[in-house]
Amino acid sequence: MAPYIIAIINQKGGAGKTTLAMNLAAGLTLRAKTIVIDLDPQGSSLQWAAMGTNAFSTPVEAVSGDWNAYGLRLKYKIYQYIVLDCPPSLDSHTSAQALLACDIALIPVLPSPIDLWASIKLSQEIEKTKKDNPDIHSYLVINQLEPNSALSNAMNEALKEFDIPVLQAMIRRRAAYRSAALEGISVYQMKGNGKRAVEEIEAIINEAIPL
Ligand SMILES: Nc1ncnc2c1ncn2[C@@H]1O[C@H](COP(=O)(O)OP(=O)(O)OP(=O)(O)O)[C@@H](O)[C@H]1O
Ligand SMILES: [Mg+2]
Fold this sequence. Notes:
This protein is of the alpha/beta class and 211 residues long. The chain has helices at residues 17-29, 44-50, 69-75, 93-101, 113-117, 120-129, 153-161, 175-183, 195-208, and strands at residues 4-8, 34-38, 60-62, 81-85, 104-109, 137-142. It has one domain: Rossmann fold, CATH 3.40.50.300.
């Protein structure tokens, strides 16, 4: 079976792409062979995997030179899941290729209407991609939701007007996500503190990723 490609994408910096990519990949690794491709010149997911003394659960690689969707599928055909950690830009060849290559685009957004509207250009890019990648699925993933609070009314209203559906599963602001990055592990490898975070990532996998 061809690998299932998951692009974690948003041109807005700091929305949680790398955090979602690394933890999602760790969860998928428990199910099937998975790899993270670091498409960001900042190299954040490669750096994450190199942090600390524990090995990260999932291989992380960069692609060099010019690449395309076809080449990616061929090169990584032994994997069932390929998670693309995209750069915070839509102007690069990289983001366009990632949208062309992927089966699903997950778009982490911070829980404020301003951040959501900053991603409007991305929803236009996804619409354009549908000419060449008609089966693409795309979902917003709310990240850094305040602990113990619901989405604001303003955010709920803004989401209704946005073309891309939002996953019911959301990610709250938790120290575990930051600690995992510092230790070079995923929330799955953390002791008790990671439990709630693991439940969130599992809910995202169960809702969005075909197994
Ligand atoms: N749910 C969360 N709870 C707490 N901290 C978080 C959460 N999600 C992300 N962070 C922190 O927010 C910062 C930005 O997250 P991250 O690096 O994943 O975003 P990004 O979209 O990949 O950024 P860039 O656009 O620079 O690639 C990091 O310090 C990360 O640890
Ligand atoms: Mg990043």
